[in-house]
Amino acid sequence: MIDHSEQVAEGALLLTVNQRLARHHLSRYSRWQLQQGRQWWETPAILPFRAWLRTLHDAALAAGLSERTLLPDLLQQKLWRQCIEDDAHLELLDKDAATVAARSAWEMSCAWQCANPEDDYLSHDQYTWQRWCHSYTDALEAQSRIDEASLADHLCEVLSQPAAAPLLPDTVIFEGFLELPPQLLQFTRMLSEAGVNVQLAQRQPRAQVLSREYVDDEQEILSIANHMRAELEHDVEQSLGLVVSDLQQRRASVMRAFDRVFFPGMSPEQIRQQGRPYDLSLGTPLRDTAVVSAALSLIRLSLGSIQGSELSAVLLSPYTEASASEARRREQLDRRLRDERVRSLTLEQFRNRLYAGSRLREPVEQLLQRTRFSSVTLSEWARRFSDSLSLLGWPGKSIDTEEYQAVSAWMECLDDMQLLDDGESVNVSDALRLIQRLARDRIFQLETPSTPIQIMGRLESHGIDFDCLWVAGLDTEQWPPTGSPSPFVSIDSQKAQGVPVASATARLALAEREFRLWGSQAPLLIASHARARDGKSLDVASVPDFEASAASLAAAAERLQRLENLPPLIDPATVLQASLRLEAIVDDHGPALPEGSEVRGGARLFEDQALCPFRAFALHRLAIRPLEEAGLGLDPRQHGILLHSALEQFWQTVGSHAALLALSDEQRLQELERVIDAVVEEYQVPDSLRRLETIRLKGLLDEWLVQCEMPRQAFEVVSLEQRQSIEHGGVVMNVMLDRIDRIGEALVVIDYKTGTSSRINTWADQRIVNPQLPLYVLTNDEIEGAGFAQVARHQCTFKGVASDSSLLPKVKTSVTRSRGGQATDRPLENWSDWRAHWREALDGVASEVRQGLATVTPMKTACLHCDLKSLCRIDEQAVVPELDSEDGMEVSS
Q1: 388: helix, coil or strand?
Q2: Model's pTM, two decimal places?
Q3: Is 578 exposed, middle or buried (CB count within 10 Å of its CB: 0-12, 13-18, 19+)?
Q4: Beta bridge partners of residue 497, listed in sequence order
Q5: What pLDDT shows up at residue 721?
Q6: Cα-Cα-Cα-Cα dihedral of 50, 54, 55, 61, to 10°?
Q7: What is the rounded CA–CA span in Å between residue 835 and residue 839?
Q8: 3-state class of 716 per DSSP?
Q9: Which residue stretches of the chain have pLDDT < 70?
Q10: Where are the alpha helices (DSSP H) in 520-635?
């Protein structure tokens, strides 16, 4: 291992390839100074190469050696985008992606000094990029600016002057560089010519290499975490490293694996409070942190409206005013909005929905009273964003360290908006897009105290010394790493200059140098790979061989012995489950109900009890129900409500078959339009869906009236949407009857159905599904028919049974026994038989309800759309054979 501390103490400048390596050497330098017995020392000259270039340029500006200022990174991005937007020769679908790709190609061309040949044929992409580059460099010249990519070239010119000698150190050490691109080589030559002692740290691989194979990627990371935990338990002072080549894509899964091994059975919040002994080098986009995500949602609400799940995020956010004291009431409001399928809310609508006494009401009122500008400067937008968040109480009063750091990073995003302000006005949409992009592009890396375990990507690992280093993913699919040459620069030029991603040969050479570098960073290098991935067999990658030094062999011997004796990875949950002795008990009854008890759920209670006793008990006795989710359009329940309400208002006006026939086609359609307009307004159908829903309802209802209502014999509507409390078998429930018609001396009950799955075959079974109409029939002896009105496009019809088949079209009088043996043995040849059977069958279901029967014995179809499977664990049991389908029934008149 190479320690430059003594040279740095003597005045040498140590330049590292990245910030992580600079922190590593700063920490090592501090330990070295303490070992020398010193209690204080000057700040050492240890910093990343790019940071030193910026410092050197600042010094050159101050000394009057340069007149060109460095363009900040954000303004570089803005200038590239402006050059692309000003190109009148083409239209791009994604200007942000084009900006990133074009800038990346520019940085590569500067570092590797490769350019498109002027006398050669260029592709359309290359020609376009050349045009953008000319615009970009012309803009830099006009502003007397220099960018980060060409800073080294500019400094080569500036520092070649004799007057620049005082700015240069005596010795410069480059550490952690796998290779020096031509631009950097040119810069080092300039330093040497200026009299600077330039040293390139040379590392020799001396580690003992151990190869390990695992079943898959998950088992690989879990096993490494298990090994690291054992090592840490042996000696907490040691330094351990893990390199995961695709860490950016696997960050979450790697973190879960280590959490599972180091903190079994603990929640992420508990782990965060306790503190992890490992640190991941790659951060996450700032916008993905909870506190900044909440800020963006609140800004969208303050500016206009928020959509879908953001409603819940705002209401349940812990980062708003009185979030803790009003948590329960906000949860109830969230449930209510979900039940109403609210898809979006403006700020004013949000205010109107707030419950009385909400401490959010006053700040929302203040936001509504503010003057709204269509366009202001970015600095003004940044101020307004900050003020809006403060009014709403963001980020709360008690945030932890991680949230505090995220808030600080958010403030930097607002500062960036002011940096990008060029004095021109920006509309609200563009300002919102900008702050969202800034929060997306800023990578948030939690600053934590030094940890004994570092988990890194490839580039972050270079040059850092460890007591033991693991490298995961060394299979032929991931090693050598793949590359993607820039399409904007000639591939021949890239290959000629040695750009690693331009050829397989260059990538292989770079990968071998990288592995040798890892071999110099620890006495023991453990290279592992998965045997298979996504069902595909993998081979171990070929890596360079090198001889381990005697010191490395001695240092690794004890560690290898512990590895051999390491017990296999054991899942604590599996161990606990294996050690438990479970006793099975029968617990299939809840508390019994006294006679006359009222149970919520209406006729659906009897339907659920017939389908599955446990389902009925969970839904109606325990009141368990899932959270509703608003979809993109209206859901089936909303379609049904609108249809029921429209037909109710239509028949309130028309009232009878004779009045219906008296309407002309034009009058009938006008009446339908009137009632449809009324219901879409009453139920606040979103404006974007109103016209579509009006057209749908008008066509559907007119088809129903013409095909099914007008051909009927004379009838009079005597009741609409009648809510009634009924009692059956000692159970009291409230039911809603869509409609009752009088036909002669007989009454017929009708229930509207907007789907086509409602079947009457179970009315003849011992367990009746769809029991609402049979329940109501038993309350009134005058009722002689019951039927579903199936109001479905091109499938409008009546389904039901009656004492006389002429009461309703296509309604029958009897049903034969089903082949599956599920139907009653009672003959059903007349209306009296039907009533007697329904009374007997529903008495049996009512008895189960009163007894509290809650067995998990569903019909097979009951589980298809059930949300309670995780509660009843039906998948762990055998399912009761399904009751007969309608295909097994014979219907006769």
Answers
A1: helix
A2: 0.79
A3: exposed
A4: none
A5: 86
A6: 160
A7: 6
A8: strand
A9: 1, 573, 815-827, 877-893
A10: 550-564, 572-579, 603-611, 613-616
